[in-house]
């Protein structure tokens, strides 16, 4: 339906044996300077030369067979508008008219040279335009039940990216079926730039993308895999102050500067409203949302070795030293930062108004006790020395001034000390990660505020440090 020309022109030359009135022909056929169009599109399809050998055509028997055909410089213009008859769904829902079910068609081999496919999707604003050149073969196109055509087409897009279409297609079957793999490598991101920029809220100044699609349709069931890989993406000006895309980019971009997006393969691809750029933008929107809600989960999705998100560590109350468990968590964080070089970490230390205060108070009381013990020892020594002297010297009363009498004050823990504790925890983390784990200091930012968590506060325990992921 989407390819329904109403006007035709070209030069036909045939050599062989023809029988009339039933019209049967056997021989070779050549059509040059062919053009087919519609009232809206004068050049819908064309080719420079099509040459077919071993052609058998029989109108009485409703038969057309071609052993070998060569198609030089064919051209196809595919304009997709809002009308259902002219959409992606038109490709995947072809049906053979009942009036032609008894026809017999077989094209055994077609060699295609430098075919040009122009696509324009007017459902998008601005319209998506792309040009692809393909060469290769299509074998075994036939409407005999169970006959599957073999596609082997390779070429390049207008931006010199490699393009290939390989697989099996039930082209002329009563029920459409296919198992096709399409691949695009090194395509300039400019082809989808207008739609990406609307979604991510940033100008995209450069980048490339690869696409790998395996599409399977059988018995009206659609399955497959579909991935987009963006590489070397560079962002320009932001169009929104609250945009999360830089973080999304950092969370998903690996050491090779590539970002993989998996698109769902569903029955939607056969619907009249399906749009490939729209599918990409919807997936990006979902990723941006995930980076806002659960950035660690998004970053660790491809790293099953890290079982728990390294988003915080818990300190022993009153301490700033790192436990072995803390160091293990920080090593997992190091792994994440190594695999995602665009990420940074904001370190926010906390102190518990209850546990940390009690621990610091216990430390101070221990110091006071030791001082008191030392003071008592001094007193005892002075008194003992004085008692010994009394045995050999005239009796006199020891001077109280010679004996230390001051008792240490009862200790207290001020809020400033808890603030210092929280900040020192941040410092301990940064020192360990820069010195031991060799993470660049400019990727680690201490909060330096030293927040105190009240005793009755909900959520995590207060004697901890939290990590927040950011983008460079």
Automatic annotation (TrEMBL):
The keyword Coiled coil applies. It comes from the Bacteria. Keywords: Coiled coil. Gene3D superfamilies: OmpA-like domain. Residues 350-377 form a coiled coil. It holds the Pfam family DUF748. This is DUF748 domain-containing protein. It comes from Candidatus Desulfobia pelagia.
